[in-house]
Amino acid sequence: MLPAVLITGAGKRIGAVLARAFGAAGWHVVIHVHHSPDAAHALAATLPSAEVVQCDLLDGEAALAMVADVAARLDDWRVLVNCAAVFRYDDAASIDPAVFAEAITVNAETPTRMAQAFLAQARAQGGKRMIQFLDQKLLNPNPDFFSYTMAKQAVAAGVAMLAMAQDDPAARVYGLAPGAIMASFDQREDEHEASGRLNLLERLTEPQELADAALFLAEGWAASGETLYIDSGQHLLAQPRDVLFLARGQ
After folding, report:
1. What's residue 88's pLDDT?
2. Residue 16's domain is classified under what CATH number?
3. What's the pTM value of the predicted model, to 2 decimals?
4. Quick count: other Cβ atoms within 10 Å of Cβ 28?
5. Which of 63, 151, 194, 236 is geometrically suited to a Cys-Cys bond with 247, CB 3.0 to 4.6 A?
């Protein structure tokens, strides 16, 4: 019986990189998807052991039902990685209520509720690992993508509190905070070549580095409540705007 991991938003981009890495490391990968079931099933077909689950993370009750279903079916569900997120623009001058409502639900409320349900319901051999995707903006904030950043701050607070609340000494709750790793928002790939180097090491951080970090956290060696920053030192800088605008000279 293989240990299982559920990764939200795993049909494409960073989530798909994580799915491939866990699959290659001998895990049964549960690929969550919302909009791209065909891509998710194509990815699952390339992995040694995988399945696809689908729901809209704006619907918290559907997300909890998905967790309950996976927990009931799998005997060794060790890891939940909440990777899915929405990244829409608003700024400090004026919150867009619709952008805020979506961000706080998809990026904070639903992942936290899923974490609570996973920690309460999953059966795991050797301890459960909850990994919440955060952002280097936690330590290097700027006024761009205001609602997104507020939501990431909220879920980060939840990481610390959930870690403190666990009675099982083998359970771990972690944060994983990337920097500018892939082209985002309205960027072209050539623009990411510039913005992705606006970090302390002036290098592009590869998606595989995030996957390697997630695999490390899945082993439970780090203390519960810790956050790993995978951003080539971007979080150690003080940047006045999001790097996609800094690279454009805006």
Report:
1. 96
2. 3.40.50.720
3. 0.97
4. 21
5. 194
